[in-house]
Amino acid sequence: MALRTHWQQIQNYIWLVFGGACLFFALVFWAISGTKELVEVEKKAETEVELQIQPEKVSAMNHLGALFDEVKPLDMSARVVSAAQHEAEFRGTKFVNEQKKSYTLELFRVSDEAILKKFLKKQSNRSNFSYLRLFGENHAEQYVLLYGVYRNSDDAKAALADLNVALPASIKPAVVEIQQYQPFVNDLGSDELKASGKLYAVNLKTAPLPQVDEAQIAAKRAEVQARQAVEAKTATTTTTVTRRDADGNVVNVQQSQSSADAAHPKNAPAQTEVTDPFN
């Protein structure tokens, strides 16, 4: 323990001397270097390309927004209308443009289309009903239910007097000109979707069947039958007979051929008789 403690003291003195030496050399280096001020050096562009890409050399575009007329901004109020989202009575821009000089009866307006659909399903006759979606920059989204289309206001007032539609007492139908809906309608109606899917009729004409030549069919049939008969006569069958002794060794092999002409001895092929010496 005494030796170990003595060695630790020696190590501590060595570290202390080493740290003092490092501090001394640092002070000497700082005294030699001095405290000179840093000088900012501006680098000059060496090539013409470097001059062109300097920020202060880039000129601003004088006609900012020059492509505004070529690339129109998106109209956020427009939307793609699917046929499955609306009833068949839904009308759009085409209906309003065609009937803008006509009059109609506005029954009521709702903000939820489901209410309007529910009302239509309760009607036994829906031929005179139609509805629009009204939406604009300063106009909340609404669905307006219309009844009929009339040429002038007098006809519309007469239809209003004879109106036979069950409505709550709080709802008061009114005569309106369809033109007033034009700024707030930007949809594709159900009638336009049906018109886009054109149906085409296919007219079939009778065509004469080709005449069958019975003579050619009979000749082909006879030719096939004759060829089958020749093949049957020339067909031969080869039979191989292998004889073995009691130990299983092959003694001899006998082959024979038979054909359709075997019934006629003169046409039958020659046969070789092999006798078994052990039998």
Write the layout of secondary structure elements.
Elements: H1 2-33, H2 48-52, H3 93-98, E1 103-110, H4 113-121, E2 129-136, E3 139-150, H5 153-161, E4 174-177, H6 190-196, H7 214-234, E5 236-244, E6 250-259
The gist of it:
The protein is built from 7 helices and 6 strands; from the N terminus they run H-H-H-E-H-E-E-H-E-H-H-E-E. By secondary structure, it is α+β, with helices and mostly antiparallel strands.
Description:
This is SPOR domain-containing protein. Keywords: Membrane, Transmembrane, Transmembrane helix. InterPro entries: SPOR-like_sf. One of its GO terms (molecular function) is peptidoglycan binding. With 279 residues, this protein is α+β, with helices and mostly antiparallel strands. Among the domains are: 114 residues, Alpha-Beta Plaits (2-Layer Sandwich); 43 residues, no CATH class. Helix content is 32%, strand content 18%. A hairpin with a 5-residue loop joins strand 5 and strand 6. The radius of gyration is 55 Å and the shape is flat. It starts with a helix and ends in a 20-residue tail after the last strand.
